[in-house]
Amino acid sequence: MPDTLREGERYTGLMGFVTRFDLPSPKPSVISILGSGQRRQVVEAYRTIERYLASYDYGNTPEMELKFALRYKTTDLAILRLAFESMATADLEAWIRSEPNGTFSPGALGSSTSGSPARSSISPTPAIRQQLLPDKHTVLPGEPSRRHRVTDNLPGPPALDLR
User: Fold this and answer.
1) d(CA 98, CA 144)
2) CB contact set of 41 (below 8 Å; sequence gap of 6+)
3) Strand pairing category for 125-126 and 150-152
C-alpha cells in the first residue's frame, strides 16, 4: 500500500495528528509521510499520499505537526478540532510565543487563547490561506485581530461544532 510506512519514516501533519492522538476521524485526504529517500506524490481516486525528505521535518511534537499541516496541507477542520482538544495548551502557547512573528504560529492561536502577548504591527495572517488552494478552501473576508495578528476567515461562528 502506498501509505504504509517504511523504515525511518513517520506520518506528519494531519495524518500525524490522527496517529499520534488516535483520533476518531477518517484519514485525511492528503497523507503526509516524512523521511523518504526522495520527494514523491501518489494521487489516488480519494486521497493523495505525499512523501517528504527528512529535511522537511520541523520536529516530532504536536506543535510542529500543526506547523507542517498549516504550511503544506489542505485544512481539515474536523481533524484540527480533535487535535486541539488533545494538545497541551501550555505547549501550544509556548510555541506561539517562541515564534511571535512566524507565519504559521499566529494562525494556530485561535480565539480561545487568552493572556497571549500582543502581536507586532505586521499585517494579519489569514487563518486559512485560500490563495494557496482556492478550489479546496471556502473562506470569509474575515475580521482582523490586531492582538493575535490573524484574520479570522473561517466559515461559521467559533461555537460551530464540526463533529
Assistant:
1) 22
2) 48, 49, 50, 51
3) parallel
Distance CA 45, CA 9 (A): 24
For 82-99, how does the pLDDT look when each residue is reduced to its tens digit (9 = 90+)? 998 999 888 888 887 887
Using a cut of 0.70, tell me whether the model's pTM lies above it: no
**Predicted confidence (pLDDT) per residue in 1-50, tens digit:** 577 898 889 999 999 999 999 999 999 999 999 997 888 999 998 899 99
Q: How far apart are CA 7 and CA 33, in angstroms?
A: 12
- 119 residue type, one letter: R
| H helices, E strands: number in the chain | 4, 7
CB 79 within 8 A of CB 30: no
Strand pairing class (150-152; 143-145): antiparallel
